[in-house]
Specification:
Strand content: 25-35%
Number of strands: 8
Number of helices: 5
Shape: globular
Largest sheet: 8 strands, antiparallel
Order of helices and strands: HHEEHEEHEEEEH
Distance between the termini: 51 Å
């Protein structure tokens, strides 16, 4: 009986030591995230998508900055603080808790001004904050999708967590990769693009965006 009690106590001590070690490792080596320099590198440009040009006319869950005339914005520091004040006033404060940086881009096919792609990249201090923001992004899209006839929500195998929201002419993907949250949108507002081309872009655009993020996260 004494031997069993001692053995149980030893197991408890070892478990406690391992738990403390695990916490220490988490504190010393937190999940990698993106810094200010990374943000510009992970936001795609027209060079990443030949045949497309910058545009400022597509809004997803989050509004774009007023200075987004070139179709691309990278926000850190005071610029990010200013944009977060706007997002909070619009009811999108979920995006701003422990937010380190944000990048937004809209590109459109040059020969079809109504076929556009958009990406919002949100980098957080830690994975818990990113998970909470992803939940907020999903909730925002769910509220909107129920307003569209024929819209559907589907699971996706992209990143660490992802859902696809699909409606006629538009697909919105909510994706989390570690400490980074992405909203990727493919929109055909004219029905001039073939279904095959649209489906191909739904595969290509988020894959391009995630590859740039994963390269910086290491």
């Amino acid at each position: 009986m004494v031997r069993m009690t001692c053995r149980g106590a030893l197991v408890a001590v070892v478990a406690a030591v391992l738990a403390v070690a695990g916490l220490g490792a988490y504190l010393l080596w937190p999940a990698p995230t993106l810094d200010a320099a990374d943000m510009d590198a992970v936001v795609p440009t027209e060079r990443d998508l030949p045949g497309f040009v910058p545009h400022d006319g597509l809004t997803g869950a989050l509004s774009v900055p007023s200075g987004n005339k070139a179709g691309r914005s990278v926000l850190t520091g005071s610029d990010l603080d200013e944009q977060c004040r706007k997002w909070r006033s619009e009811g999108d404060g979920w995006a701003c808790r422990h937010l380190r940086g944000a990048g937004m881009v809209v590109l459109e096919r040059s020969e079809n001004v109504f076929f556009r792609v958009k990406s919002d990249v949100l980098a957080y201090d830690d994975q818990d904050a990113a998970e909470a923001a992803w939940d907020g992004l999903v909730a925002d899209n769910r509220r909107e999708i129920h307003k569209v006839r024929g819209a559907e929500e589907r699971p996706s195998d992209l990143g660490d967590a992802a859902l696809s929201f699909e409606a006629p002419g538009v697909t919105v993907l909510a994706i989390r990769v570690g400490t980074v949250v992405v909203e990727a949108i493919v929109w055909d507002g004219s029905d001039q693009v073939s279904e095959a081309d649209e489906d191909a872009m739904v595969e290509k655009w988020p894959a391009l965006q995630l590859s740039k993020i994963e390269k910086r996260l290491g």
